[in-house]
Amino acid sequence: MAVHNPAECGIMIDAATTVDRDDAVWIEPRGDGFDVWIHIARAADHVRTGGPADTEARRRVHTRYRADHTRHMLPAPVVEAASLTPGRPNDTFAVHLHIDAAGRVLDAELGPGRLTRSWIMTHAEAAAASGDPGHPLHGTLALALRFSQTMLAARRNAGALAFYDLLSGFATNEEGQIVRLDSAERNSGYIIVQEFMIAANAQIAAWAVREDLPILFRNHRLAAVAGDPAGLRDEIDAVASSGDGAAFEMLRSRMKMVSRAATYGPTVHGHHGLQLPVYTHATSPLRRYPDLVTQRILLAAALGRPGPYTAEELAETAAHVNASLEAERRAKAEFFKQRAQAETERQMEAADFATLPYKQFARVLQFAVERGDAPAGLAADTARRLDSRELQLREFASVYLYGGDEFAPLRERMNRRLAGEPQQAQSVLNVYLQDRLGGPVSSETNVHWTVEPEPAFEGPLFSAQVALTFGDTRVESPKRLQRNKKDARNQAALALAAALAGLPDLSSDAPAKPRADVQRKLLVDAAVNPAEAVQIYAARGILEGLTWDFAVEGPSHERVFTCRGEGLLRDTGEQVRAEGTGPTKQAAKTAASVELRVLIEAGLALGETGSRSPA
């Protein structure tokens, strides 16, 4: 191998049936790190911008793989001419990375490349060769696997939702969703390909940003309710180590609910699933239209040619691709929904629910609840699964919130179960909101918590109240008092869940005894800044709906600010307001706060506020 230029060597690792080979990888040791090359087929040389093949590729957006056939994005002659092929020189777009032992990219070179010595391997063959010292490519593939494991560890340490369980066949895709791998991909060859391509796409995107070059960036955001990616990854690891297939399926369903689809765009918004500040798709120009578009832009920039797209054309292309992919997702979901519904109706007629695997049982139960007509035996089997702790959150919430008369006794039991495990109530509220919104829940716009200390009572005591908003509707819980914030939130959520389900409210308040010295305790120390004191009274709930408004008058060198602060004394309903002026906004606010504080504390001194019993 020493007589060959490593920059012109590459291994194409693909499925056995692949004909459109658009990437190859190579790696050499460099000190305690790696020299890495990713070669990408120069599809742009074979597809004229705006020509018939390009127009059809734009319409198709990507190659579609089916069990019985493949519908290629590009015509067969173009695929044959542009594919990387052993035994002949291949022009490529090359990404050359110098990476240290910790997985940090020290240097990246991008531009036209050439592949003169190459090999074809399946995922399984690459995996076998990496562990077989007798294989001619063992050294390269063993190093490639080490590199992939290093890059995977670096991404996981950054909080990425990166996971492969080759034994069970579960893995995460770039959007953080859990997917099942084909049997041919359940090996280390698959990991090699994935990590090389992620590294290449990330560095291409970073290079485009450094060059201020608009391409089709790949942007991704998790829903607000998804949680911290690192925490989700730890949960995936825990479920994987348990070997609990049902738990994996439940987590898989949950990740589908909270992970939004990634989109293409000419501006950067980051990629949360991969925990990368910038990302793109550029390594599959024979199979994905955005990769072909981006390759044209990269080649033009590298060769000093004018850009092939205006900003408007690039934005329009991104919008077209996003809309096409979303329409395809909806059509696919509708197809599987109809097929599942037909199978569900058949299983309902069979009425042998105890023998159904959980996934099929869940479909039958959901269908029956939505239809409002449960067949005989379904409620009893649901109760059995509840008692055996098999019933999962989605199905529990559906019966609890919407179950009809057939489920009435079971819903009463569920209500008691939830009262005993109030930490589950917030999850039930989340399901309720998702049903109303038809998608992910935002913790900023849909769920509103008010949690604050209650100094009017002896001992540490906190109140919590939750409100849900969707459309023009707002529903809220009663206020609940507990010894800590977590318990107060759980009891407030429990009360609202019961109200939404039309079931008895089994939530409770902790015993509370009013302080004898309540007025003195409620007063903020006189040394506290007036503006801060007013904010403290608002945080304690003594002053509700506090607002500050500012106005300014006069020329720039003699500006006069006016601040108006106002709010509502909680118990009396009295509106209090004050104004102050000053040369700065802060001075005006301080002046208004002095007067507003007097009004609040006058109410306290007269015993007009702070003496309510718990709600």
From TrEMBL:
One of its GO terms (biological process) is mRNA catabolic process. SMART domains: RNB. GO terms for cellular component: P-body. InterPro entries: NA-bd_OB-fold, RNase_II/R, RNR_Ribonuclease. One of its GO terms (molecular function) is 3'-5'-RNA exonuclease activity. It comes from the Bacteria. Residues 13-304 form the RNB domain. This is RNB domain-containing ribonuclease. It comes from Glycomyces albidus.
